[in-house]
Amino acid sequence: MRIADLEIPEEAKRLLAKHGYEELYPPQEEAVRKGALEGRNLVLASPTASGKTLVAELCALKHVLERGGKVLYLTPLRALASEKFADFKKYAGLGKAGGGRVRVALSTGDYDSSDPHLARYDIIIATNEKADSLMRHRAHWLGEDSLLVAAEVHLLHTADRGPTLEVALTRMMQVNPEAQILALSATIENAEEIAEWIGADWVSTSWRPVPLREGVLYRDEIIFRDGSSRRIPVEHSNPSINLALQTVKGGGQALIFTETRRVALNLALKAGQAVSKTLSKSERRILRGIAEEILSVGEKTSLSEALAKAVADGACAHHAGIHSAHRRIIEENFRRGFIKVLAATPTLAAGVNLPARTVIINSYLRYEPGLGRFEIPILEYKQMAGRAGRPRYDEAGEAILVAQSRDEQEFLMEYYICSRPERIWSKLAVEKALRTHVLAVVASGFAWSEQGVHEFFSKTFYAHQYGESVVERPVAQTLGYLTEKGLLAFEGARLRATPFGKRTSELYIDPVTAVTFKEAFHSGRGNPSSPIALLHLVASTPDMAPKLYPSKREIPELQNLLEEFREDFLLEPPEPSGWRSAGEALDYEAFLAELKCVKVLHAWISEVREAELLEKYKVEPGDLYRLVERAEWLLYAAGELAKLFKKKQFVAPLAELRLRVKHGVKAELLPLASLEGVGRIRARALYAAGFRSLEDLRRAQPAQLLAIPGIGGKLARRIKEQVGGLVRKEELEEAEGKGVQHSIEPYVTEEKAD
């Protein structure tokens, strides 16, 4: 079936042709035959690179250009949302039948807003959490959505992301039952069950544009699923690196999935040593430029230096501990073919689209704190394997598991390659998820009685799978907890959210977190203005997860912190008892993890550099920024609840601490660090040079700013614009001609107690 034959506007056909789209793949054609372009609900389960996104784009064009509709596209991750936003941006500017041009928006942050400006957009790309937040705020434009696309719908089976997606879909079916739903995934074993739940047809196929060969490598031989085999020349002692090297020599790229971040980085460095010998002079020059770009972004750490070293040799690592800006550089240059080998943790399998000719699963085991080592699910293996084969570049893709023995080779072939993935099961009944979503259903006006709550949850995927009666008991128990803690209240048969409950839901925090804040505000214990106490308050909540568990050598320092600030704590800390029961020991271990979060955050607001945080606390940049982002939001939420309860003694300290956490500075730097483009390091440099206030900057001459380490002409102009000062272009050019740029390294401060 040709795109030219589809019933979509001619302007859209011309644009698609310009981007190389001429004929539909078989899964796309089947989706069209099943009524996707006619507004029918559809579950589309087909492998990576088989064209699922194009089906969503075609449906979106139909809704927006012809029907005057609105599209909401959901993804589980911000990185994926940005990727899809780039896909849809090409349609911005197309003419709509009713007049006007197509507008595309990306919305992933700020959970305490209904974002009314989004009403002006036709296609909105959002994370599941952002969409859930918008529904809690009853964004009026949600009722105008005529198409809801849910990407990676197989994540319904995960306890952390699944319930939010499930509730968002359930709400959309309630808010706008006429809207079309398009659910997409690479791997769903029970697609027909999900289709039944949303009232849809389904397409489930294994067709791929690039054929996939799955096999198991033992020593120097790969045994494939079809019984064939291939010998691999041995040029490296590590089987995964050796196979990757052969792929690179054949003109392809390799993606190695590893069990831990440490293994990923070590493999990348070793792979780089092998790959570098195959590179041309021009490739070396390009890779050196990429390495320099990594070192120029963000603060320099031992991790960024290791990444730059690996990249210069043609390989790199990819995991959640890497700074997001560095991950973007790595992803972009792997897609462009400059980075030849990428060693990644399994999180990449559920993230951005980075196909490679060869996918190598270095280990099928996973380690989780408290759980030990266990085998990854078949579904996870299939997600990894699906990355093999780059359309238009590879004739075939290969997904290879690495075995340590003949016996293990047979096990891997039988268990992973020749088996079907697990069925998708709802995780909505997880206690944390249920209390959050039960509160939200009432607080946002989707139910006005206990019966109404039960009716809402009877429409969920959980109830569809397990039966409506099964969900009644956990929902009733959750209602009891929320009522007892003052978040919900009964007025006869009517059920309503209290102001406390409504604000908690709007702030997008766990009800247990809100109750923790409330109890701390009313306890009369501790010091409300102590940064250590306030940081511990947010670190003690379930929303501050995962916690940072300390090593044995860190425990004495954390115990000293506890004793020094014990009287400041707003929550009762455990006694320094030498003997504890098993349960108490686990609680104390969790408390020490809270203290480590406090210690790291306090170092951050004391302007300790990222390199030192990594060295001293083993907190990698990606983890640090997630910790900072989460702490900032929780401090904001605590401040909002302090206002609600009229606890004025908490409001100002929480507001100031939130800004310090956001910018990573001492209080004296807040006016400077709040300026766009300045940041914590340049703010300290400005302060050290005598610029202590915005008024000082307003009076500053261009030459004075250019003499500050790390400040160039563009930033100097931005600073002057923000503080209300005017500067002529000629002044800047003259100052730049005379000025000397300095390193910002001397402006490193040591951690000090507030």
Q: What are its keywords?
A:
8-stranded mixed β-sheet, 7-stranded parallel β-sheet, Rossmann fold, alpha/beta, 754 residues, 32 helices, globular, 48% helix
Provide structural commentary.
- By secondary structure, the protein is an alpha/beta fold.
- The chain has five domains: 3-204, P-loop containing nucleotide triphosphate hydrolases (Rossmann fold, 3-Layer(aba) Sandwich); 212-417, 3-Layer(aba) Sandwich (Rossmann fold), CATH 3.40.50.300; 431-506, Arc Repressor Mutant, subunit A (Orthogonal Bundle); 511-664, Sec63 N-terminal domain-like fold, CATH 1.10.3380.30; 673-738, DNA polymerase, domain 1 (Orthogonal Bundle).
- It is built from 32 helices and 19 strands.
- The chain has an eight-stranded mixed beta sheet, with helices on both faces.
- β15 and β16 form a beta hairpin.
- α15 packs across α19, α20 packs across α25 and α21 crosses α23 (582-605).
- It is globular and about 70 Å long.
- Mean pLDDT is 92; it is low at 739-754.
Q: What is the approximate shape? A: globular
Radius of gyration computed on alpha carbons:
28 Å
For the sheet with most strands, the description reads: 8 strands, mixed
By CATH reckoning, the class of the largest domain would read Alpha Beta
Number of domains: 5
Oligomer: single chain
CATH topology of the largest domain: Rossmann fold
Beta content: 5-15%
State the total count of DSSP E strands.
19
Approximate helicity band:
40-55%
The CATH homologous superfamily of the largest domain is termed: P-loop containing nucleotide triphosphate hydrolases
* Structural class determined from secondary elements: alpha/beta
Global mean pLDDT: 92
